[in-house]
Amino acid sequence: MLLAVLIAVSAMAAEPAPAPAAVPAPSDTGKVTITSDHFVVKDAEHQAIFSGNVVVVQPKVTVHADQVVADYGNKGATSLSNFQATGHVVLITTDQTATGDLAVFDPKTQHLTLTGNVVVTNKTGKVKSDKLVVDLSKHQSVFSSKGGRITGVFTEEE
Questions:
Q1: Cβ-count burial of 45 within 10 angstroms (0-12 exposed, 13-18 middle, 19+ buried)?
Q2: Closest CA relative to residue 98, chosen from 112, 80, 81
Q3: Domains in the chain: how many in total?
Q4: Domain contains 30
Q5: pLDDT at res. 27
Q6: Residue 9: which domain range?
Q7: How far apart are CA 88 and CA 56, in angstroms?
Q8: Exposed, middle or buried: residue 20 (CB in 10 Å: 0-12, 13-18, 19+)?
Q9: What mean pLDDT do residues 98-116 have?
Q10: Which residue has the higher pLDDT, 141 or 116?
Q11: What is the pLDDT of residue 4?
């Protein structure tokens, strides 16, 4: 299911970014572990910026990206208002992988948008497009393409 790779992003979003030698595993099912080469907190702007080989590990999804920016409210990291992953974005679950150039998650609308060379792959197929918008509240995925066509290749599951 194309939606499965994206649903887990609501709990906290090309070519794969190089992964570090060991990807940390979260110690509790509700925790998110983020590793990166650099980490900057802009408290006055309510923004946390992770850059350089960023790996976000959450129980249902692992996100790789060149940079992850999280905007948060007055309550800190627990009041996430926007999550943006840029550069060689890879979203991995147990049964599929989605890649693109930019992933943006908006908790208010429950929309996750993946743009730029989008490819979603699982054991029964692959879909390529310019853009994927997932409405997590409606469990609806919409692929679109600027002036081009969307390509889907599907095979029978063994």
A1: exposed
A2: 112
A3: 1
A4: no
A5: 42
A6: 4-21+41-154
A7: 14
A8: middle
A9: 90
A10: 116
A11: 35
Let me know if residue 28 belongs to a domain: no
Residue 33 lies in a domain: no
Q: How far apart are CA 28 and CA 103, in angstroms?
A: 25
CA distance 68 to 111: 17
The pLDDT score that the predictor gives to residue 29 is 53
SS3 7: helix
Residues 6+ apart with CB under 8 A from 149: none
Strand partners for 70: 48, 83
For residue 128, how many C-alpha atoms fall within 13 Å in the half-sphere facing its CB?
Answer: 6
For residues 50-69, average pLDDT: 91
Which residues have CB under 8 Å from 52's CB, separation 6+?
A: 36, 37, 38, 66, 67
Please choose, from the candidates 83, 145, 91, the residue with its C-alpha nearest in 3D space to the C-alpha of residue 120. 91
Radius of gyration (C-alpha) of the chain in whole angstroms: 15
**Mean pLDDT, residues 89-115 taken together:** 89
Q: Which position has the higher pLDDT, 62 or 77?
A: 62
Query: Does 29 map to a domain?
Result: no
CATH number at residue 86: 2.60.450.10
